[in-house]
Amino acid sequence: MQLHTDTWCSSGGLTVDGNLISTGGFQGGANTVRHLDNCPKSVWREYPSALAAPRWYSTQAQLADGRMIVIGGRAAQSFEYIPQQEGTSNTKPFFFDFLQQTTDPDENNLYPFVFLSPDKNVFVFANNRSVLLNPNTNAVVKEFPVLPGGHRNYPASGMAVLLPLEVKTEDPNEVPDAEVLVCGGSAHIDSYTLASKNMFYEALQDCGRLKITRPNPNWRRELMPTSRVMGDMVIIGKVLIAGSNTNNGYIYDAMYPTELRVEKFSPPYFSPSRADKKPKIVDGGCPKTMTYGQQVTIKIELNEKKVFLKNFKVTMYVPAFTTHGVAMNQRLVKLLVKDAVNVGEGRYDVTCMAPPSSAVAPEGYFMLSVVHNMLPTEAVWVQLK
């Protein structure tokens, strides 16, 4: 599939129908919106003037109403919404003073960390500060305390994740707790500049946790086993690790050559020694589509004679668009499990409730798993709409 615009350091995400929308990039690709449909014979459709501002190192996120927002980028202290009608163009972005305020001489606020909060606002973290942005009024409605320790966004390049959201009630107006975890980065404002002169600072070893849905939250500090910069923070499962390059271009005879191999990491709970205790969703045992608040029964096979409801979880995971330690739109929702019934011959019907609202889980495709005693099934695709 051929591309005509440069996607270097771009952003992206999936639509409700599982189609890819890619935004921004380098030089002639910076104002581009690209569409790739979820079908075998799809080809790229590119619109080089669709965005009002050039978006290089920007972040893209899906909103509760299905729109997509693009925030920041190099020399772009603004945000805008991807045109909902393909082929049309934005005429003007929304100035975002917060990004201007968080720009250092070495920037340190590119690829901002952006998460849809379950109260429908947008959490934006840049450098060492964070706010809630209302996407309906385009106004900042809350600023959180500064995260101490240093600088967290590119090129300081820490990482962040929205921790799993747990649904505990069927009430669609109930806002579940949402907690953000930010780790790593640099304590020094000029790390990037000095690195080009072969002067290297140690990366940050700390993390900060913030419950963004609480009235007056404060950061809670933790330490990682080691310092990290430009790591990837993912909600664990099987992980593909691809690429690595400390060079300007593709160079294979340097001390640290350009790396093109792909590795797969499997966590301990995928050990073959535990395979006989893993649950399995039977063929056709899960609906392919769900609606909000729907009661859903999932049929599984499980080698257990007696089970307890408290040991079951049903999770839905959004696949992320990942680059530079930023996993855009990554989200895992723990559903409300109502029952688990033994229907004979090692089979169980697990009944749960679909997410209560699009603020908890925006419309689109999810990977659904049933978890028993910390062992997950292989995921199946479901569409929430």
TrEMBL record:
It holds the Pfam family GO-like_E_set. PANTHER family: ALDEHYDE OXIDASE GLOX1, SECRETED PROTEIN-RELATED. Keywords: Signal. Gene3D superfamilies: Galactose oxidase/kelch, beta-propeller (2.130.10.80), Immunoglobulins (2.60.40.10). This is Galactose oxidase. InterPro entries: Gal_Oxase/kelch_b-propeller, Gal_Oxidase_central_sf, Glyoxal_oxidase_N, GO-like_E_set, Ig-like_fold, Ig_E-set. The keyword Signal applies. Residues 2-236 form the Glyoxal oxidase N-terminal domain. Residues 284-383 form the Galactose oxidase-like Early set domain.
